[in-house]
Amino acid sequence: MTHDPSAAAPGPACTDALAARLDRLERELVETRGRLSRLRRASVAAIAAAALPSLGLLAAAALPGTADTVRTQRLEIVDVQGRVTMLATSSLDGGHVDFWNARGMNSVRVGATASGGDVTIWDREGKPAAGLFAGTDGGSLELSAGTDDVMARVGASREGGTIALQNGVGKVGFAAQAGSAGGASGVFDGLGRPMAELAVNEFGGHLGIADRGGRGIAKVQGTPRGGALELLDSDGRIAVGAGAD
Questions:
Q1: 92 in helix, strand or coil?
Q2: How far from 136 is each of 133, 155, 210, CA to CA, in Å?
Q3: Furthest-apart CA pair in the chain: how many Å?
Q4: Distance between CA 237 and CA 31 in Å, rounded?
């Protein structure tokens, strides 16, 4: 059955809305890129005095001749060779604790910031591996593979959750988002061009497929009258259209 193209009007709006959401996900990845590297270069701050009991000082306080409180602006724990393996200091942002492995590599940092808490992990070569951050609008988990590029990011905000996966050259390969209206996801090629999208529109679901040039060539979606299918030619004109009346 030939379908009136006007019945598929929700398609472009849904596509534009999804594109806007995916663009925002990519911008977030760009904004967070390098955060692990900046933390790596940042000066070490300090642990708050309230956290010191967790280091075992309360147990020591029960022993004769020991103090029940230790107050300092810098606390260093060293190994048998005198190398620092844990450092706790204080700064204007709050407390920070750093840990070094047996090879002298700064492997983990736990700290407090104006936005909340941060946990940063580096691999055995001292390169970024993972970060867990609290922001003003929610938390985020970022995974890297020895570079400043974030390969995977999971975020949460008041609007919902987001997931973005990048390839080795910094291009988004998959992105998904959940919001009050429902979910949306997109799949991209190696150059970051959208190849397929799956989303929710006001009449149901929307599935779009693009060619290698990123041009839309097929759509299946819900409309006010039911389901609709469109196949487009290379010029973007409807070649085949079908829908429920």
A1: coil
A2: 10, 12, 36
A3: 92
A4: 37
Amino acid found at 118: D
Q: Helix, strand or coil for residue 139?
A: strand
Length of the chain: 245
Q: How many Å apart are CA 134 and CA 113, to the nearest integer?
A: 9
**Structural element, H or E, at residue 42:** none
Q: How would you label 168-183 residue by residue, b for 16+ Cβ within 10 Å and e otherwise?
A: eebbbbbbbbbeeeee
Report the predicted TM-score, pTM, of the whole model to 2 decimal places: 0.65
At 145, the amino acid letter reads: A
- The amino acid sitting at 41 is R
The whole-angstrom separation of Cα 151 and Cα 170 is 8
**Do 49 and 71 contact (CB within 8 A), yes or no?**
yes
pLDDT in tens, 227-240: 888 898 888 788 88
Enumerate residues 6+ apart whose C-beta is below 8 A from 200: 14, 181, 182, 183, 184, 206
